Amino acid sequence: MAYVALGSNLGDRHAHLMRARAALAALPASRIVGESTIEETAPLGPVPQGAYLNQMVALSTELSPRALLAELHAIERAEGRVRDVRWGPRTIDLDIVCFEAATVDLPELRVPHPALHERDFWQRGLAELGAQCP
Known about the structure:
Blueprint lengths: L1 E7 L4 H13 L4 E6 L3 E3 L10 E10 L3 H14 L14 E7 L4 E3 L2 E3 L8 H10 L5
Antiparallel strand pairs: 1-4, 1-5, 2-4, 3-4, 6-7
């Protein structure tokens, strides 16, 4: 079970989340088994920007954490995500927050996500889904 955080603060935020959920559900050997309530939150970081819509999704998947990350990046690109400004606004942001009991420590991926305990909205989403993250 992977827990994936979805966030959007550009354009039609609800539509970006909806299309991201549909793309997650269509991943090979994967299915969404739970979705948290969508929550509006203030942006994080130093770049001035609009509020985010955030949601947590429980994804049953046979993909490895690294393969899932590649799929998440492909979904972001399909939704017009541009990675030009760190902490900048985005059409969609998809993060692997935790992945069962798996721990990953690679330059491109750390699981559980290092900011997990700093983001109350992620913790609320995980609690709503009954997640057990390390």
